[in-house]
Design goal:
By secondary structure, the chain is of the alpha/beta class. The chain contains eight helices and seven strands. Helix 1 links the parallel strand 1 (about 5-10) and strand 2 (about 30-35).
């Protein structure tokens, strides 16, 4: 039976790969996008900035009217503003935390209401390997993504009695537009820390998300699943 699925930041990169995978499986998939055009391919696009509570509420209303209340939420929307701490402005720090962490709070809160009524649901947050082992020049990004872990585990305890699972996927360096902006030297330095010695593919992240949203993962909650080629193991 087709489910109502929402992927925030689902218009590109990892989010788009996740949305396409669910759509190919026959689910009804909506995606949020902040700028540009909504993706094609049978996805329902809703323009939404996750830093704006009113826009988030309107997005969930639009999705519910189009395909029913959200049953699976994948929080993937995020931003980076990389800079060494001594050069990082307070706005650089707070804006990244607002989008990546507080944005997740906004969308999960909106999704949890119908899930609680239905007594079932799946919440999957997309973090980062840098949340586990840190990354120079990414203190804002790493902090925001690490915060998702504590957030998810607290919610796993709050919502578990209603059969709502909350889990985290932690991708490593993945072949996206963001990764392509790195210089060859930067990519090489990162890959030296990856035991599998290669960059990840968006489809590999999507496969892990699909599993966590499946019936097979009904007894998994509060988990952090790394999809990073072994880069952050032990953390």
């Amino acid at each position: 039976m087709a489910r109502s699925i929402l992927v925030t930041g689902g218009n590109r990169g990892i989010g788009l790969a996740i949305a396409k995978r669910f759509a190919e499986s026959g689910d009804n998939v909506a995606v949020t996008y902040r700028t540009g055009e909504p993706p094609e391919g049978g996805l329902f696009g809703v323009q939404c900035d996750v830093t704006d509570t009113e826009q988030v509420e309107q997005a969930f209303k639009a999705v519910a009217e189009h395909q029913g209340p959200v049953e699976v939420l994948v929080s993937c929307a995020g931003v980076t503003r990389d800079q060494l701490l001594m050069r990082m402005s307070e706005e650089d720090f707070t804006s990244v935390v607002d989008a990546n962490l507080t944005g997740a709070y906004r969308v999960v809160k909106a999704a949890s209401k119908p899930m609680l009524r239905a007594r079932k649901g799946r919440v999957i947050l997309i973090a980062s390997a840098s949340a586990l082992y840190g990354a120079a020049g990414q203190s804002n990004y790493a902090a925001s993504k690490a915060g998702l872990i504590g957030f998810a585990r607290s919610l796993a305890r709050e919502l578990g009695s209603r059969s709502i699972t909350v889990n985290v996927i932690s991708p490593g360096l993945t072949d996206t537009d963001m990764a392509r902006q790195l210089s060859g030297a930067q990519r090489d330095a990162i890959l030296q820390q990856v035991p599998l010695g290669r960059i990840g593919q968006t489809e590999e992240i999507a496969a892990a998300v699909e599993f966590l949203a499946s019936d097979s993962a009904a007894y998994i909650t509060g988990a952090v699943i790394p999809v990073d080629g072994g880069a952050a193991m032990g953390h």
